[in-house]
Design a protein that fits this description.
2 domains, alpha/beta, D-Maltodextrin-Binding Protein, domain 2, 18% strand, 353 residues
Length: 353
């Protein structure tokens, strides 16, 4: 059963204060003995929450501090500590690959977990990593939707909406420059849009959002994905135009915690029903975790997600809070993985066949 609720967005200062309060020191927990692991599992099972209560739980972030996954996992960390009396520590890894591999190699006792995104799938599908998201991890819960990706174009672009962009792209194949990473979530997003809409864009490498903003403002790229906050700031300054957003299937802009203008409507809301992107966050642990423990952890996360502080914190960073039971979590994860495989094949980037 899926359960998603909405609350008002935290004010900017409150979000910043909360994020600061939730910051944690990096570091890894020491390896535990088999006896202590068994004891922790038994204690957690007795409490019905699955999470080990007698040991520190390392929450690995496959990315630098300050990113969406990092901010989200710190809200979950605080909620787990406050609601269930757990001890957690957040550890950041500059390399996604190293972070994912660390969790995959950890003991399956619930003391090392991560909040994974589509990058885990993409890295494996494209052959940039050997960690298999479908076999080397245990899926505990599908949580929040990643929210909205803003499609921005230069301020002087000869179109003012997404339909105008599509019309122009069709009459000028391979002439419009799309800024994106060499291989990443935005690469796959544009890959899907091109496939669904029958357009051809010229791929220009712009790995970071700051690069895309600079190149959009300078007119060096014709479209790029930027965050909602930067999109609104640069749009107000007359440095770019917003022609729409991309979100999960069925997501609408009224689900964003703050009011957004009409030009931020999702592509689905604008009539392009197949123009969406599944990007969830998944709580995962190493392969081989005890099934009872996993079921209890999944159930325990429902209370964490619906806690007002955690819920509003997740919404405050632009994500859409959510919790899914194990069955639905597995269905959503498989659906996202399969979609990314299809996109990779269309892009000529699939190497796992």
């Amino acid at each position: 059963m899926k359960k998603i609720t909405r609350r008002s967005m935290l004010k900017g200062s409150a979000v910043a204060a909360a994020a600061l309060a939730l910051s944690a020191c990096g570091g890894s927990s020491s390896s535990s003995s088999s006896a202590s692991s068994a004891s922790a599992a038994a204690s957690a099972a007795a409490d019905g929450i699955g999470f080990p209560k007698n040991e520190t739980i390392t929450l690995a972030v496959p990315g630098k501090a300050g990113g969406g996954s990092d901010l989200a996992i710190r809200y979950y960390s605080e909620g787990l500590n406050r609601i269930y009396g757990l001890k957690t520590t957040v550890t950041n890894y500059d390399s996604n690959t190293v972070g994912h591999q660390t969790v995959a190699n950890a003991k399956p006792d619930g003391t090392t977990l991560t909040l994974a995104t589509s990058s885990l799938n993409i890295q494996y599908i494209t052959g940039n990593a050997t960690v298999n998201p479908m076999t080397d991890f245990t899926l505990i819960a599908c949580l929040q939707d990643n929210g909205f990706s803003t499609l921005a174009v230069p301020a002087n672009a000869p179109y003012d909406d997404f339909q105008g962009f599509i019309d122009y792209a069709k009459s000028h194949p391979n002439e419009l420059n799309a800024g994106m990473p060499a291989a990443g979530a935005n690469t796959f997003l544009f890959g899907k849009l091109c496939s669904v809409l029958g357009i051809e864009l010229n791929k220009v490498e712009c790995a970071s959002e700051s690069d895309r903003l600079t190149n959009l403002a300078g007119g060096f790229i014709d479209i790029g994905v930027v965050g909602l906050g930067n999109a609104q700031e640069y749009s107000k300054a007359g440095k770019l135009k917003v022609i729409g957003t991309v979100a999960g299937d069925g997501i609408t802009i009224d689900q964003y915690p703050a009011e957004l203008p009409e030009n931020y409507k999702t592509l689905q809301e604008q009539g392009f029903k197949d123009c969406y992107m599944l990007v969830y966050h998944y709580l995962m642990g190493p392969a081989g975790m005890d099934e009872t423990m996993v079921k209890q952890m999944n159930a325990a996360m429902e209370e964490v997600v619906n806690d007002p502080t955690v819920h509003d914190g997740i919404a405050g960073i632009g994500h859409i809070p959510g919790w899914h039971d194990l069955e639905e979590s597995e269905e959503l994860h498989q659906k996202e993985y399969d979609e990314l495989v299809n996109i990779a094949k269309n892009l000529g980037m699939y190497v796992q066949g």
